[in-house]
Amino acid sequence: MKKGFSLFVSLALLSLLAFAFVGCGEEEKDVIGPGGGKDSGDGIISGFAGLKAGSWAELVYPDGTHSKYEFLGTDTYKGAECYLLEFETIQDGTKNINQIWINKSTGQGVLMVMKDENGVVMKMEMTPTTPQDIPTGETPVNSVKVGTQKYTTPTGKTVEATVYKTTTPDGEDETWISSQVPFWEVKSLLNGKVFYELYDFGTSGAKRDISKEEMENATPLVFPG
Questions:
Q1: 2, pLDDT greater than 50
Q2: What does the pLDDT read at residue 106?
Q3: What is d(CA 46, CA 36) in angstroms, rounded to the nearest whole number?
């Protein structure tokens, strides 16, 4: 299974993220989700832990694929201030980048921009979503908290993660999340086998790979009908 941030994966991620941007603070470069990223006491993380511009998190998969999430701050699109995120995937030496623009005042996704390994850039206007109808993605659905675990990245950074288990018709899934990590993801196991793990993260240093000029000159992507 390909691990990249395909168009459909990016749309799913946007659905998970959009709700968290509603009710954000007024700080120009901060994204504060419901509850300001504080643990409610039962291990449920209430939104982002004060995600700052430049924050990033990188996951690694058993086959060597790396996926990086980056929050780049704000920019304007059609006169509206938007939060700007990029998702980068490197698989088998091939890099693909997806960029998502989220209207700051409404929390709705407005634009997706894609750049492939050949430098070809395409963009797609997004159908407005309704943030209050979107799950936050902060706690796995139908999951049971089973405890907390320390996790150390291959780069030597240690965080405390809350562990949830979910029983499905296909077996048991285990998810580790942490408010200490931008974008919260730490580890995922499917029937005891690691699906992905946190490789590294930081609260500064994220770099924009699709410039505004590239976005403006990108080829529009339109689906028939």
A1: no
A2: 83
A3: 7
